[in-house]
Amino acid sequence: MSIVYTLLAAAAVGLIFSRFRIPGGIMIGAVIGACATNLILGEAQMPSFFKTAAQIVAGAFIGAGVSRSEMREMRKAFKPAVIVILGLFVLNVLSGLLIYKTSSIDLLTALLCTTPGGISDIPIVAADMGADASKVLVMQFVRYVVGIGIFPTLIGKITAQEDQNNEGASLGTKSSADGVLPVLLTIAVATAAGLLGKLSGLPAGTMAFATIGSIVFKLFYPKANLPRNVRKVAQCMSGAYVGAGIGLAELMELRLLAGPALILFLSLATGTFVIGMTLKRLKLFNFREAMLAATPAGASDMALISADLGIRNIWLILLQVMRMISVITIFPSLLKLVAEWLA
After folding, report:
1. Cα 331–chain centre separation
2. Which parts of the chain fold into alpha helices (H)?
3. 160 exposed, middle or buried (CB, 10 Å; 0-12, 13-18, 19+)?
4. Sign of the torsion angle spanned by Cα atoms 9, 228, 225, 112
5. 174 vs 154 pLDDT, higher one
6. CA 18 to chain centre
7. What Rg do the C-alpha atoms of the chain give, in angstroms?
8. Which of the residue ranges 26-40, 155-169, 252-266, 276-290 would you say has the lowest mean pLDDT?
9. Which of 28, 26, 34, 31 is nearest to 9 (CA)?
């Protein structure tokens, strides 16, 4: 029954947070609900297969969102994507090392805290790799809020006098297939690929293989899709898994994250400016587009934010998709190697 109580509490608080439109509200609320259950009842539990299921669904959602036309267009965004991805990886390592040196957070957790991935994805990866997922979740929440709540406003003001070049292709909406069969097939392929990744023993192998498998399946079967509600369920499960592992001792330790959060904010601001200036000097984007391209927020979020700022350039959005896929599939393994080498 403790599993049922944990899930009910996680879902209830997650829905409340979602209603208030809090960024990542379902996952944040699920963590709080499961944590509260743990503190009150002292017996919050979540089986490990919930974590695996959440990784598979997250990978399927990412992969099924990449259409065949976008895959063809990605070749044109390759050069700026390489610059952004390499720049963010260097920033990831340097800021992670700084947090590690100035706090009590272990190196692998510190590196994952500064990973420019998703608030719903990176904590799952952290739990899979044996890092402190609760700290990673808090820091990813900080990154997410900074990425969508602060940087776009600052970028809009800094580039207010710039004439926008909107000649790039406009970003269209993805069509969703009707019926249950495409969804079931997408989940089946992602599950098979994810379980293969889990057996491979690679860090974050479950999510990485599920993502790649879903992308390949999408290329051969364009109707592949995953409803957003399925992802919300996965967010709730992963949040409950993380929250069930947070007790009083872990909460007391979270007080120490004010310093690391400040380091993360300053490093993101510096990195976004430097990478953005590099893209502008190479004449790959104008300054406003370059700054948005270097902002490590979600791909779908950047699509909406870019439109609000008068930009409808598909290359910028495709670059964000490529960044997200690279961060989920490549960064965790590289960061683990960095942590082991420096340790």
Report:
1. 12
2. 2-19, 25-41, 48-64, 68-73, 78-102, 107-113, 122-129, 133-145, 151-158, 181-200, 205-220, 228-244, 248-253, 258-281, 287-293, 299-308, 314-329, 331-342
3. exposed
4. negative
5. 154
6. 17
7. 19
8. 155-169
9. 34
